Amino acid sequence: MADAPKANAVVGQSGGPTGVINSSLVGVIEEARRHPEIEHLYGAVHAVNGIVNEQFVDLDVISSDILESVASSPSAALGSSRDKPDKEYCERLLKVFQRRNIHYFFYIGGNDSANTAHIINEMADDINYDLRAFHIPKTVDNDLLVTDHCPGYGTAAIFVANALTGDDLDNRSLPGIKIDVIMGRDAGFLTAASALGRQRDDDGPHLIYVPERAVTIDRFVADVEDVYKRLGRCVIAVSEGIKDSDGELWAKKLAENAEVDAHGNVQLSGTGALADFLSTQVKSKLGVKRVRADTFGYLQRSFAGLQSTVDAYEARCCGNNAVKYALEYTSGSVAMKRTGNGDDYAIEYFRTELCNVAEHTKSLPDEFINSEGNNVTAEFIKYASPLTGALAKTEFLGDRPRI
Amino acid sequence: MADAPKANAVVGQSGGPTGVINSSLVGVIEEARRHPEIEHLYGAVHAVNGIVNEQFVDLDVISSDILESVASSPSAALGSSRDKPDKEYCERLLKVFQRRNIHYFFYIGGNDSANTAHIINEMADDINYDLRAFHIPKTVDNDLLVTDHCPGYGTAAIFVANALTGDDLDNRSLPGIKIDVIMGRDAGFLTAASALGRQRDDDGPHLIYVPERAVTIDRFVADVEDVYKRLGRCVIAVSEGIKDSDGELWAKKLAENAEVDAHGNVQLSGTGALADFLSTQVKSKLGVKRVRADTFGYLQRSFAGLQSTVDAYEARCCGNNAVKYALEYTSGSVAMKRTGNGDDYAIEYFRTELCNVAEHTKSLPDEFINSEGNNVTAEFIKYASPLTGALAKTEFLGDRPRI
């Protein structure tokens, strides 16, 4: 293949932000500075939208102090976009690349972003334009194919785990039924992370429902009743993407005017409707007075001042590696392979083809879900624990022997 | 007055838990161990409910390692209660005190708890029983009288500030209108804390609504429209206790079956109804597509692994001081006086009469609210900043000059 061109590069951040998407951005910026093949690095403001409209900021001039502050900031520092480029949109992108002598395209995002990079790369091939299009994975959902896990997941998992640790203690303190609705349209990884903070045998969440297992409202209420009878309280983690036995989203059944985005997805986050519905069902069917429901919403992906050290480091390395791969290959997505676990947890980075990551998503594997479909297994805990690092240790005194 | 009796003591935690109510508990435990007048310290499980039912745990045997872990745990480690004792209930409490030779009663809670301590203390006086009843303030609402601020507020304020810092960056990244509903039935202190993370001139929250200022839905929507036209986005912090111009709670107007607790209060937290109502109003009246609303719910008071260092320290000192005061006086509530601000921030602890704290609550002072009633003032920031300590610094690159 041809030598890496001496040319300009552009980096963009797409889709829902995460707590470490900016670490990946900084990984790209710092690595690009190490290679004279990359003359200038442009930041695309609001992703592909910023490219077609030529809204670029100069990333060559950002000091390392500010870069470190960017790396620890949640959300997408360049701005993001939900645009899903079609062929005509991609043609416009390519024209801008040609006009600005951009031969390196780094796109941090989910599977849709990998797909966008893939389409543009193929179009560039068709006209013999040497474009190096690289996708850097990010998603709190942890649902990308090939990679062991996704940057963004570990940080969101800490938020969810700490939230449930605290909420379970709150529920011990003032017993009742508590329902927490957690992000995750199709994949239950983030909802499963609610289990990571459990320390005592009877710690909640006592029930965990993920999109991978359908549940009827009757079964849901019966499960809650079982736990409530046994413990006098019950904490439940529910994915916003849970489905009824007919395969339809609970959230969709509830939404009178369900909002649909450019990708054809129903709005799930940013509304408390599902939580309130479940709460009302449990309250009326079980006759328990103290039933509460919270929807964690956008805090899960954007809470400031909270990063998984491992996650932030890996996100940055993914950014570094995208640039390194771009000097050797014409396209790809950065992926991670786990080479150890527990105390020996370690990661190797590798390149995979864009088409391996584009479009499709990964679900929570069967071995991570219990046979009843209402909790996670020890295998899941073993898989996810290294991604958050140690979590807050807590104590509860109220269950000690009476004197 | 009489010398401090050599007798047993009981400590309880009442009402909604906070992130540092356990620091106050540990403050009581460690200080009690220093004074031979206190023979045994009992922990009342689920507050007054645990006293009348004689559900006590032995706090003399808890190791210091575990105590430190208790101090950093959110929620009430002894369990809490929403019971509001009447005279007959208080008589039962007093009987248990007599039977167990309990002459020291430490009660960590809000103004209702101060009132309970006050009632029991007067009843003990009536029968010449030397009871030392002390209230230790706690509330995320920061609404107790006399004290400069309340333990529990600084930690909840960090949660709210970090949430808004992140949410505002998220909203910069994917512009639209974002509404965040924050705890606070009558006092707007916690909602006001949403402003503490602002760093740039155009950082959100751009509008802040507190229970102290009524707002009509039309005014609310008009305010949002103004900001949206100016910035192309808008982040709004709304107290769950906001009221319409007729003085009625918005949340009450919405709730078909508003749940009322033992204190006659309508349930506000643990439901997304207010957020969803405001979101629908804004969406339909302004025709803006991307409108989202989150209700922070119980996370604000129970999130694990997050404490304000200042708040945790002060909470512990309040516990220490309650014990010290009990050796000198027969009743009181621990209060804090600010003796410096900014870099010179310092606190002195003092004793105030229970009746000064019982029943009534404090509102956000006028000088902390702007004249339009839709934001906080610089005076508020000056007041509240020392209570959280330094917050996460963030960067956004997308508003830099274009190249």
Report on the architecture of this protein.
Two copies of one chain form a homodimer. The first copy, chain A, is an alpha/beta fold and 403 residues long. Chain A has helices at residues 21-32, 47-52, 64-71, 87-99, 111-126, 153-173, 189-192, 217-231, 250-254, 273-286, 299-302, 309-326, 354-357, 378-388; strands at 7-13, 38-44, 56-58, 102-109, 132-137, 177-182, 207-209, 234-239, 291-295, 331-340, 346-352. Chain A has a seven-stranded mixed beta sheet with strand order 3-2-1-4-5-10-11, with helices on both faces. The longest helix of chain A is centred in the middle third of the chain and has 21 residues, at 153-173. The mean pLDDT of chain A is 94. The interface between A and B is large, with 78 and 80 residues.
Short structural summary:
Two copies of one chain form a homodimer. With 403 residues, the first copy, chain A, is α/β, with parallel strands linked by helices.
Show the helix and strand layout:
Two copies of one chain form a homodimer.
Chain A: E1 7-13, H1 21-32, E2 38-44, H2 47-52, E3 56-58, H3 64-71, H4 87-99, E4 102-109, H5 111-126, E5 132-137, H6 153-173, E6 177-182, H7 189-192, E7 207-209, H8 217-231, E8 234-239, H9 250-254, H10 273-286, E9 291-295, H11 299-302, H12 309-326, E10 331-340, E11 346-352, H13 354-357, H14 378-388
Parallel strand pairs in A: 1-2, 1-4, 4-5, 5-10, 6-8, 6-9, 7-8
Antiparallel strand pairs in A: 2-3, 10-11
